[in-house]
Amino acid sequence: ESLLGPGSTAVAHPNIALIKYWGKRDEQLVIPYVDSLSMTLDVFPTHTTVRLDPEAQTDGVILDGRPAEGEPRRRVVVFLDLVRELAGRTERAAVDTRNAVPTGAGLASSASGFAALAVAATAAYGLDLDPTALSRLARRGSASASRSIFGGFALCHAGRGVGEAADLSSYAEPVPLPDFDPALVVALVNAGPKAVSSRAAMRRTVETSPLYQAWATSSKGDLTDMRAALLRGDLEAVGEIAERNALGMHATMLAARPAVRYLSPATVAVLDGVLQLRKDGVAAYATMDAGPNVKVLCHPEAAPRVAETLLAAAPGCSVLTARRGPGARLRTADE
Ligand code: PMV
């Protein structure tokens, strides 16, 4: 191991979509069916180091301190192959990646993970990509990762056409909103790995859910409304649109055959807490991803009250308050 160079280390944060991505129209190129819009968080960073290993026959992948195997390892190796192809190089690499949250629990570890890997691997292989190209590359690991390249708010284009045209036109870009700085209270109701991967769940939803097309169509309207609400800095409207978009996405999964249900009794208890907050005059709106955890959008001043209410609604959950966070970047030597 000591024969390896210092390598390149990147840090990236997860993002939570206010307008969700769900469903791919090209699984190999990872092209979404719908545009999505997210907020990158300032919590749960992923740190990833990539060192080239000219002697090695295969890539080494350490995930949270242990050698990765099976599908998680395969996804990293496929991603490195892509980077090697872009760089015109063949050396194998040693990858060491650490998530601040449990991997695969619906906490967007794949978003921060592939954003960090894109930044660290391109640096290690001597590629100098602009943010758009980095975002496009990160998308190949996980579509949501395209958004974690950027800090604050980001819009991911589903792209147009097929093949190379689709690949070139599907990437995220920042949505500059310097004055919009809400809080996102994260209620962790269960940090265990999910029963169905988001990949498998998406495929099943697209192939079997009679509600999928309807949601994808309504999501276009949600995005238009969301952009207007964000520009006005209207947190109430942003929250309402985000909540309906997320519940609609979960409805598509519930109607899949067989159903995919990520929401647990504790999720529903937290959602009841959110409704109670609104009845009490507190602007609080929920969104859920491919897991039982709930993220609640609110004004920063209201975050302590929101956190307290969610804890009381679902005893045993843990809460923490996130704000908008930075984009993916290389770490300097002295960090
Ligand atoms: O990119 P993936 O496979 O992590 O997809 C996750 C998609 C959702 O988190 C459910 C929604 C989104 O847009 O992030």
Question: Top keywords for this entry?
Answer:
10 helices; alpha+beta; 2 domains; 16 strands; Ribosomal Protein S5, domain 2; six-stranded mixed β-sheet; globular; binds (3R)-3-hydroxy-3-methyl-5-(phosphonooxy)pentanoic acid; single chain; 335 residues; Alpha-Beta Plaits
Write up this protein.
With 335 residues, the chain is of the alpha+beta class. It folds into two domains: 8-178, Ribosomal Protein S5, domain 2; 183-322, Alpha-Beta Plaits (2-Layer Sandwich), CATH 3.30.70. It has ten helices and 16 strands. It has helices at 70-87, 109-124, 131-141, 145-148, 163-169, 198-208, 212-232, 235-254, 265-279, 303-313, and strands spanning 8-12, 15-19, 24-26, 31-32, 36-40, 46-53, 60-63, 66-67, 92-99, 153-156, 172-175, 183-188, 284-288, 294-298, 318-322, 329-330. A six-stranded mixed β-sheet has the order 8-7-9-6-1-16. Strand 7 and strand 8 form a beta hairpin. Helix 1 runs parallel beside helix 2 (109-124), helix 2 packs across helix 3 and helix 7 packs antiparallel against helix 8. The longest helix has 21 residues, at 212-232. It is globular, with a radius of gyration of 19 Å. It starts with 7 loop residues before the first strand and ends in a 5-residue tail after the last strand. The relative contact order is 0.18. It binds (3R)-3-hydroxy-3-methyl-5-(phosphonooxy)pentanoic acid (PMV). (3R)-3-hydroxy-3-methyl-5-(phosphonooxy)pentanoic acid is lined by residues 17, 20-22, 36, 110-111, 142-144, 198-199, 289-290. (3R)-3-hydroxy-3-methyl-5-(phosphonooxy)pentanoic acid binds next to helix 2 and helix 6.
